[in-house]
Design a protein that fits this description.
The structure is a single chain. The chain is built from 17 helices and 20 strands. A five-stranded mixed β-sheet has the order 8-9-10-1-11, with helices on both faces. A hairpin with a 2-residue loop joins strand 13 and strand 14. Among the domains are: 146 residues, Dipeptide-binding Protein, Domain 1 (Dipeptide-binding Protein, domain 1), CATH 3.90.76.10; 229 residues, Roll (Dipeptide-binding Protein, domain 3). Helix 10 packs antiparallel against helix 12 and helix 16 runs antiparallel to helix 17. The N terminus is likely disordered. It starts with a helix and ends with a strand. By secondary structure, it is α+β, with helices and mostly antiparallel strands.
Length: 559
C-alpha cells in the first residue's frame, strides 16, 4: 500500500514538473525532414528554406490564412481604389503611346523595420534587390518577375514606386520580392555570375544583418540543425520563445521516435510525417498530441526530363500514366485522403477545372502505346527498341521519406508489368533540390511536390523562357525543359487579363493543355499533417506556399 502511494505521489510530482517546464519553456525544438541547400531567399526554391526563413525574414506582402494578400513590410497594398496603383500606356521605340498598358504601384515600408545588425530596412534595399534579381547572370529563381520591372522610383527612405511593363492580375502585391540587405550584399554582387557563391547567405549565413524578422539565425550545422534566437531589433510582437532549433531528421520513422523520446518538441506539418504515418500516430498518442490534417495546394508529381529521347515521346509519357493505378495508391497508402490529381491545379483553387483529360489505369492501352513508340521487343520481361536500346528510366526523390520510398516501389512494380525497368536513386533533399533538380542533372523522373499560392501563375515552371541552363546560371524552375508555344501564349495572356471570368477560361485551356501534353505525371494532392503537443498553441496551417512560420510570434506555451 505504501509503495502504491509512493508511486502515485511520484507520478503527480512528475506531471507537475512537466507542466511547470512547459510553462517556463524558453526553447522550442522543431523536427523536419529536409535541410536547405542555401538560405538566400532568391536562389533555389525549397519549402524547408521558406519555412525557416519565415521566422527570420519578412516579405513585402504574402498570402494569409484566408488566402488573401496582406502586407508584412508594407503599410498597405497598392490598388486602384486607394490611389496607389495607376495605369499608363507603354511607349514604342519612337516615344509614341502604344495600346499596351503598364502599371505604377506605390508602396510604403512600415516604420521601425530593422535588420538584425540595427541597420534600418529602407528603399535602398528595395532598389538593390531589383538590381540583383533582374541581372541575367545571378541565377535567381524568379528572374522574369524582376525583368518585368522597368524602373523603381525611390521617393524617400520608406516610399517607392514600382514601374511594371505589365498590368497583371496580381499588380497590387509584391509577393516573391524578397528584399536583400544592400549594405551587406553589395560586395557579393560585384561579379554577378559569382553572386550565388559569394552571397553572405552562403559564406556567412549567421551574420545578424541578413535577417529582419522576429528571429535571426545564430548557428548552422550543415545537414543537421539550425538555431534561431530572438532578434533584438525586431519591433513587432515579441515571440514566445527565446530560441528555436530546427533539427533535420531525414528518415520519417526516426523523426517520430525523436518526438516521442523528447529530443524534439514538434514536427513541422509542412515538412514532417506523411499522412499515413500521422493517422497511425494519432491512434496511439492522441492523449499527448493534437493531430490535424490540412489539405492544400500541394501537388505531388513526377517531373519528367524531356531532354531524354525516351520521355520526349508523348506516347511513352501516356503509357507511363496509364500503367499506374493512382486511385489504388491513394486508397491503400493514404486512406483516400490524398485525392488523385488530373492536372496541377488543386480543386480548392477557384481556377480549377474538371474538364481535363483523365488517364485511367489501363495496362492494355499502355502496352499498345509502347508498341506504337517502337518499344516492341521483350526480353526477360523488359522492352527494347529496334536499335537494341533497353527501356530503362531512373526515378529519384528525397531520401529517408518513407511515404515517397514506398510509392516509388509501387510505381516500379506497376511499370515492370508493362516492360519498363526502373532504377531508384534517391538523394538528401539539399542535394536533390540544390544541385540535381535545379541544374537539370536528373535523367528520368523526379518525384517531389510543388506548393503554390492561390491562382499562382506557372511562368517559372512551364514557360519555355524559364528553363534553367548554364548560360542563365540555372535561373528558372522549368526543370522538365517543356517547350510549348501555346503554353507560353496562355501564360502570357493569363498574366495580363484582369477580368476573372475571362481569366478562368484561359486557366481552363492551360489545364487541358497540361493534361494532354504531360510535361509531368500528376500523382495526387497532398494533405499536410500537423502533430502538435497539447502545450503548444498558436500554430495555424495555411494550406499554401506561405508556411505557418510567418506567424511564429503567435506561437506560445499554454498556461
Amino acid at each position: 500500500m505504501r509503495v502504491g502511494l509512493w508511486l502515485l505521489g511520484l507520478l503527480v510530482s512528475l506531471v507537475a514538473l512537466n507542466s511547470t517546464e512547459a510553462w517556463t519553456k524558453q526553447r522550442l525544438v522543431i523536427g523536419v525532414t529536409q535541410f536547405p541547400s542555401t538560405l538566400n531567399p532568391l536562389i533555389d526554391s525549397m519549402l524547408i528554406k521558406s519555412y525557416i526563413l519565415a521566422m527570420a525574414r519578412r516579405q513585402i506582402s504574402i498570402i494569409d490564412h484566408n488566402w488573401e494578400p496582406v502586407c508584412q513590410l508594407c503599410t498597405e497594398l497598392a490598388t486602384f481604389e486607394n490611389g496607389r496603383a495607376k495605369v499608363f500606356p507603354l511607349k514604342d521605340k519612337y516615344g509614341r503611346d502604344t495600346r499596351e498598358k503598364g502599371v505604377r504601384t506605390r508602396f510604403t515600408l512600415k516604420d521601425e523595420l530593422f535588420w538584425g545588425d540595427g541597420m534600418p530596412v529602407t528603399t535602398e534595399d528595395i532598389f538593390f534587390t531589383w538590381q540583383v534579381g533582374k541581372h541575367r547572370e545571378t541565377g535567381v529563381t524568379n528572374h522574369q518577375s524582376f525583368t518585368d520591372i522597368i524602373d523603381i522610383e525611390v521617393h524617400d527612405a520608406k516610399s517607392f514606386t514600382i514601374v511594371n511593363k505589365k498590368l497583371d492580375y496580381q499588380y497590387y502585391a509584391l509577393s516573391g520580392f524578397n528584399i536583400l540587405p544592400a549594405h551587406l550584399e553589395r560586395d557579393a554582387f560585384k561579379k554577378p555570375r559569382d553572386y550565388r557563391k559569394k552571397t553572405l547567405y552562403q559564406t556567412n549565413p549567421t551574420h545578424p544583418g541578413l535577417y529582419n524578422g522576429p528571429y535571426r539565425i545564430t548557428k548552422i550545422v550543415s545537414g543537421s540543425y539550425i538555431v534561431l534566437e530572438q532578434n533584438e531589433f525586431w519591433k513587432g510582437k515579441p515571440p514566445g520563445f527565446k530560441q528555436i532549433q530546427v533539427k533535420t531528421i531525414e528518415k520519417t520513422s526516426a523523426l517520430e521516435a525523436n518526438l516521442l523520446s523528447g529530443s524534439i518538441d514538434y514536427i513541422a506539418g509542412e515538412a514532417g510525417l506523411s499522412l499515413d504515418q500521422a493517422v497511425s500516430f494519432e491512434k496511439r498518442h492522441s492523449e499527448r498530441y493534437k493531430v490535424s490534417y490540412k489539405p492544400g495546394l500541394i501537388y505531388e508529381h513526377l517531373d519528367l526530363m524531356l531532354d531524354n529521347p525516351i520521355l520526349s515521346d508523348l506516347r511513352v509519357r501516356k503509357a507511363l500514366i496509364h500503367s499506374i493505378d493512382r486511385t489504388a495508391i491513394s486508397n491503400r497508402l493514404f486512406s483516400g485522403k490524398q485525392p488523385v490529381a488530373h492536372n496541377k491545379i488543386h480543386p480548392l483553387d477557384w481556377i480549377h477545372t474538371n474538364t481535363v483529360k483523365k488517364y485511367s489505369f489501363d495496362l492494355q492501352k499502355a502496352r499498345e502505346l509502347l508498341n506504337d513508340a517502337g518499344w516492341n521487343t521483350i526480353k526477360t520481361g523488359i522492352r527494347y527498341n529496334s536499335a537494341g536500346k533497353k527501356l530503362q528510366l531512373e526515378l529519384m526523390s528525397t531520401a529517408g521519406n518513407r511515404s515517397r520510398e514506398l510509392v516509388e516501389q509501387v510505381l516500379q512494380s506497376y511499370w515492370k508489368a508493362v516492360g519498363i525497368e526502373i532504377k531508384i536513386r534517391n538523394q538528401p533533399a539539399r542535394v536533390l533540390f540544390g544541385e540535381t533538380i535545379s541544374k537539370r542533372k536528373f535523367t528520368g523522373m523526379a518525384m517531389f511536390a510543388w506548393l503554390s499560392a492561390p491562382e499562382s501563375l506557372p511562368r517559372t515552371t512551364l514557360h519555355s523562357q524559364s528553363i534553367p541552363t548554364k548560360e542563365n546560371n540555372w535561373s528558372g524552375q522549368n526543370y522538365t525543359g517543356f517547350k510549348n508555344q501555346l503554353m507560353d501564349q496562355l501564360i502570357d495572356s493569363i498574366e495580363i487579363e484582369l477580368e476573372k471570368e475571362k481569366r478562368k477560361k484561359l486557366w481552363g485551356q492551360l489545364q487541358r493543355l497540361y493534361a494532354e501534353q504531360l510535361p509531368a505525371i500528376p500523382l495526387y494532392f497532398r494533405a499536410n499533417s500537423f502533430i502538435v503537443p497539447k502545450w503548444l498553441k498558436g500554430i495555424r496551417p495555411t494550406g499554401h506556399m506561405f508556411p505557418s512560420t510567418n506567424w511564429v510570434e503567435d506561437w506560445h506555451v499554454i498556461k
